[in-house]
Design a protein that fits this description.
InterPro entries: Diguanylate_Cyclase, GGDEF_dom, Nucleotide_cyclase, Rev_trsase/Diguanyl_cyclase. It comes from Oryzomicrobium terrae. It catalyses: 2 GTP = 3',3'-c-di-GMP + 2 diphosphate. Keywords: Membrane, Transmembrane, Transmembrane helix. The protein is of the alpha+beta class. It has 2 domains: about 10-230; about 240-385, Reverse transcriptase/Diguanylate cyclase domain (Alpha-Beta Plaits). It is built from 12 helices and 5 strands. The protein has helices spanning about 10-35, 40-60, 65-90, 105-120, 125-150, 155-180, 195-230, 240-255, 270-280, 280-295, 320-340, 360-375; strands spanning about 260-270, 305-310, 310-315, 345-355, 380-385. Strands 2-3-1-4-5 form a 5-stranded mixed beta sheet, with helices on both faces. The termini are far apart.
């Protein structure tokens, strides 16, 4: 038995394994796409994995099928698959997709591979270096989209997937260096411990990347589920349950000696008449428009919600009554300016002060009583709860003539 032995992985077998893994991944992503078609990026990832499977098939059939298919075609679809992976990440993270994000690298690969096959059919080294550079670049661009390009904060799974993409890019860079520093291979599928190791590492990283993508999708679905449980579908504002939870934290802060807060209860004027005259679609549009208007008028730390029906509630933390009235007037004036027949209404507002020792429900009830007075006083105005206002502010109205 010889003292030393050379171990080399069979490259054809490795490419067949890549084919199987990519096919299973494409199937899993296709099912995910079918069940959750609204999630961005999943179609691109499905196409990408399907193309990678096709590329793995072509590479594994080297010398068994026509060279333009196993050399040019396989490498072209392999690069296209990685380009779709990058494009899917961009869409998922809300990054604008560049013109030709898939087409340009695919065409560059096609031109290079076809030219190399015609002019230098045995130039295995050049093809390995080129394809490794293309795939490594696309992997690095995917990591960049995950970490740097999106306005969203990168989560742990974002950073993990980016690390896997960068590891694959580094694997391709190392493959280029080793290929250039070692004797040139005579055949793409020829025995080579280095080439086998690089493809095996790429296979392992590929499996990990698919698991990372599926985890990204799972996290997005969980985020949407959590948002559906805490936000009103129509206005995209927090719902009453979420508002109550947030407001109780403010009550606790005030109980510990914090500054009082102001509570606003708002009701859209003549909302039933709008529904009756123009239909429920017009009513929904009015609610959506007011939800957007309310979000625009509130400060960053203010808490607003759709309280029920056409009622909205706002909590203004650490806000004295006079400042709270200024916020209420800003909302009232904006709603009045935007009111149009069939697409918007004015708003009446009741105001109360949340101080130490008071329960949230008690203060909201005071604001509701003030709102009732505002409705009886002609609507499109602001009323302060008597127990919250000093004598100079009691029954103060802010109305349009």
């Amino acid at each position: 038995m010889p003292a030393t032995a050379t171990f080399a992985l069979d490259l054809r077998t490795l490419h067949l394994v890549i084919l199987i893994v990519a096919m299973v991944s494409a199937g899993a992503l296709s099912l995910t796409w079918r069940r959750h078609p609204a999630i961005p990026g999943v179609p691109d990832w499905t196409y990408g994995m399907a193309l990678m499977a096709l590329g793995g098939l072509g590479l594994s059939l080297r010398d068994l099928i026509w060279d333009p298919l196993s050399v040019v075609g396989a490498n072209v679809v392999l690069v296209a698959g990685h380009a779709y992976l990058w494009q899917g990440i961009s869409r998922f993270r809300g990054v604008p997709v560049l013109p030709g994000q898939v087409l340009v690298p695919t065409l560059i690969t096609f031109v290079f591979q076809l030219t190399a096959l015609i002019l230098a059919p045995n130039w295995v080294l050049g093809r390995i270096v080129f394809i490794s550079a293309m795939i490594g670049s696309l992997e690095a661009l995917g990591a960049y989209a995950l970490l740097c390009q999106a306005s969203q904060t990168a989560t742990i799974i974002n950073r993990t997937l980016a690390a896997l993409l960068l590891a694959d890019a580094l694997n391709n860079l190392t493959r280029i260096a080793i290929t250039l520093l070692t004797p040139a291979p005579n055949h793409y599928l020829g025995p080579s411990i280095f080439q086998g190791a690089f493809i095996l590492i790429a296979l392992i990283l590929g499996i990990a990347k698919v698991l990372g993508i599926l985890t990204l999708i799972s996290d997005r679905l969980q985020e949407e589920l959590n948002r559906a449980a805490t936000h009103d579908f129509l206005t995209q504002l927090p719902n009453r349950r979420a508002f109550s939870h947030q407001a109780q934290q403010e009550v606790s802060r005030i109980a510990r000696g914090g500054a009082p807060a102001t509570v606003l209860l708002l009701d859209l004027d003549h909302f039933k008449d709008l529904n009756d005259a123009y239909g429920h679609n017009a009513g929904d549009a009015a609610l959506q428009a007011f939800g957007q208007l309310l979000s625009t008028c509130l400060r960053q730390h203010d808490q607003g919600c759709r309280y029920g029906g056409e009622e909205f509630c706002v909590l203004l933390p650490e806000t004295p009554l006079a400042e709270g009235l200024a916020v209420a007037e800003r909302i009232r004036a904006a709603a009045a300016a935007a009111a149009r027949p069939g697409c918007g209404t004015t708003v009446s507002i009741g105001v109360a002060l949340l101080g130490a020792g008071q329960r949230l429900e008690e203060v909201i009830n005071q604001a509701d009583q003030a709102l009732y007075v505002a409705k009886r006083s002609g609507r499109n105005c602001i009323e302060v709860a008597p127990c919250a206002a000093p004598p100079t502010l009691t029954r103060t109205q802010h109305s349009l003539s």
